[in-house]
């Protein structure tokens, strides 16, 4: 019993202290410090953990400072872009009026390109705002189907210019998805995703939006095919022809970064898959 007490005091209790210290580090709590008197293996381990805690704290602080610095740079760049873009847009409008080039294809294309640049600048500002810790959502009880329909209406003109027809297919027991969230930000989430879809989908094609459900979740698919078979069943039916992989390049775009950030804030899962190198499907998963 005497030897057991010595063993517990010398090894078991110090190991519990070390374990508690590690748990604090995992919770980003770096205020604690382990004090040691002896020079045995456990004391050496404790000293190494102290050094590790200081290193992780410095690394985390540096990362936060860099992220804030990058965020400030994006905001400054986006704001600086606005003024020359407005002036350039005004100059092209004046030029087309004076030279009677209103219907000139080149002038129209230049105006479209400037509008795209302006949209990119606005997206950069939005992304910076979303990364801000003070950013908050104004949440209300909403019908997600109505927000999706409003988003489609907002992008109909763009789709028409791309010669893409948007089709909405709702397969629910009741055509309603009650959801607590920020109306404007949810609409922005769908609009940003539709913007990217309209960029990458081919002209003269159909953009299909399918709304499905199972026992636990609602699913919203955005895809540019019109297969009658559900997307979730295709890999099981044709595994040799239908290899599905995550399309990382899509997630690097500003539009999808914003959409995914807004989805995460609403506990919605947004994934994207490139299937058979033919088309990309965007999938929203909403827990019931």
Sum up the structure in keywords.
single chain; 288 residues; alpha+beta; six-stranded mixed sheet; extended
Verbal overview:
The chain is an alpha+beta fold. It is 57% helix and 17% strand. The protein is built from nine helices and eight strands. The strands form two sheets. A six-stranded mixed β-sheet has the order 2-4-5-8-7-6. A two-stranded antiparallel sheet has the order 1-3. A hairpin with a 3-residue loop joins strand 7 (269-275) and strand 8. Helix 1 (2-26) packs parallel to helix 2, helix 2 runs antiparallel to helix 3 (105-131) and helix 4 packs across helix 6.
Present the secondary structure layout:
Elements lengths: L1 H25 L14 H58 L6 H27 L8 E4 H11 L1 H6 L2 E7 L7 E4 L1 H18 L4 E9 L3 E7 L10 H4 L6 E3 L1 H4 L2 H12 L3 E7 L3 E9 L1
Helix pairs in contact: 1-2, 2-3, 3-9, 4-6, 6-9
- Main β-sheet description: 6 strands, mixed
Radius of gyration: 27 Å
Low-confidence stretches: 226-248
Q: What is the number of strand segments? A: 8
Mean pLDDT: 78
Label the overall shape: extended
Give the DSSP E fraction (strand runs of 2 or more residues). 15-25%
Order of helices and strands: HHHEHHEEHEEHEHHEE
Compute the number of helices.
9
Helix/sheet category = alpha+beta
Q: Strand order within the widest sheet?
A: 2-4-5-8-7-6
**Fraction of residues in helix:** 55-70%
Roughly how many Å apart are the termini? 57 Å
């Amino acid at each position: 019993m005497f030897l057991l007490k010595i063993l517990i005091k010398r090894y078991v209790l110090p190991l519990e202290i070390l374990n508690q210290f590690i748990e604090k580090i995992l919770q980003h709590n770096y205020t604690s410090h382990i004090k040691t008197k002896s020079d045995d293996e456990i004391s050496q381990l404790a000293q190494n953990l102290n050094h590790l805690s200081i290193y992780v704290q410095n690394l985390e602080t540096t990362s936060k400072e860099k992220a804030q610095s990058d965020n400030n740079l994006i905001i400054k760049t986006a704001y600086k872009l606005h003024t020359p873009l407005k002036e350039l847009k005004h100059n092209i409008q004046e030029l087309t009026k004076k030279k009677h080039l209103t219907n000139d294809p080149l002038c129209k294309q230049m105006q479209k390109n400037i509008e795209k640049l302006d949209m990119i600048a606005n997206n950069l500002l939005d992304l910076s705002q979303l990364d801000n810790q003070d950013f908050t959502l104004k949440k209300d009880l909403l019908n997600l189907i109505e927000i999706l329909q409003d988003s489609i209406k907002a992008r109909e003109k763009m789709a028409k210019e791309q010669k893409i027809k948007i089709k909405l297919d709702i397969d629910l027991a009741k055509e309603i998805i009650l959801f607590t969230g920020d109306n404007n930000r949810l609409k922005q989430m769908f609009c940003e995703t539709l913007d990217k879809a309209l960029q990458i989908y081919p002209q003269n094609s159909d953009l299909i939006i399918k709304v499905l459900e199972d026992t636990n979740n609602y699913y919203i698919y955005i895809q540019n095919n019109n297969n009658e078979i559900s997307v979730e069943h295709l890999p099981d039916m044709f595994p040799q022809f239908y290899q599905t992989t995550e399309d990382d390049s899509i997630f690097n775009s500003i539009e999808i970064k914003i959409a995914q950030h807004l989805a995460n804030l609403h506990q919605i899962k947004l994934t994207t898959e490139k299937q058979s190198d033919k088309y990309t499907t965007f999938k929203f998963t909403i827990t019931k």
